[in-house]
Amino acid sequence: MADKQTKQPIDDNVKDAEISETNQAGQKKNTEALIWIALLIVILLSVGSIAWFYQQLLQQQTEVDSAVDKQSTELSSLTQQHRQQFRQLNEQQQQLSDRLDEIANKKQFSNAELMKKWALQEVKYLLDIANQRALLAHDVTGAIQALSIADKQLESIADYKLHPLRALIAEEIMSLQSLASLDVTGMAIQLQVMANHVNDLRVKKGPEVTSASSDDLAVTASSDTPAWKQAISDIWQQLRSMVVIRHEQTGEAAVLVPEQRYFLYQNLRLQLESARLALLNADESSYKHSLSTTIDWLNHYFTGQQRDAMVNTLTNLSETDITIAIPDISGSLNWLEEYQQ
């Protein structure tokens, strides 16, 4: 009996130990499972990180390759442009070298030849001046002078090859000398001087102006006149006092206020300027019309000795025929241009 009682606790202890060992074994298995799971997670994370870094590395490599390709293309284009520029520079250098060789192989001009070329350029300039004076300004005298100077310049060159040119110039001088002498420049200066002295002219004084006397025109109001009638009468007297009566007895110019005189002077100056421009353009119709208008205005609006002198000058100018058929004197200029080619 005692043995059974002693054996019973031992069995219980053994069972407890077995249960404890079983629990410990289960816990150990759970721990190992957790460790493997954690290890697997770490491995998966490592693999994912490696894959992500590898993908980023590939992307960066692609971008670098693209940038390198782009720079390589640009560099190739720049290299091609530089080669083309170098080729053009070489061609230009070769052309310059050929030009220098050509100049070096040419015969050097002597001092006499240089002087001749310079003298011919002066002759050409003088012939241009002669044509301009004759055709544009209708200045026959100025054209003859320019042609004469050109002929003397050709005489100093003493080249028999230029004799045909001197013959043409002599013919042109003769044709101009056959025209009636007309001092266009002098006539234009006279018109300009008169225009500058327009303000010195004295305007005619018109007839005396009389005004109705307020005493003669006044209506005497009686003391018993109503106030409203008296007011109307006063207004009427003031209006009548403003009325002026101008007696036109001799047909002289009316009195001009300062503003009117200013415009009169300006219009007279414009007529003289129009006559001067018509003279320079050989427009005889406009020229004589402007002079006639100016003379009429001077006689009608002005008086004095200066007016009389200006009228006499304008009358003489209006009697001058400014229409002159200018001959063609371009033959000598054309011959010289062909000779210099």
TrEMBL record:
Quote the protein name from its UniProt record.
Answer: Uroporphyrinogen-III C-methyltransferase
Basic and acidic residues biased stretches: 1-18
What InterPro entries has UniProt attached to this entry? HemX
Transmembrane residues, as ranges?
33-54
Keyword Protein biosynthesis attached: no
Region of interest: Disordered: 1-23
Extract the coiled-coil ranges from the record. 75-106
Recorded hits in Pfam families, A to Z, give: HemX (PF04375)
Q: Which UniProt keywords apply?
A: Coiled coil, Membrane, Transmembrane, Transmembrane helix
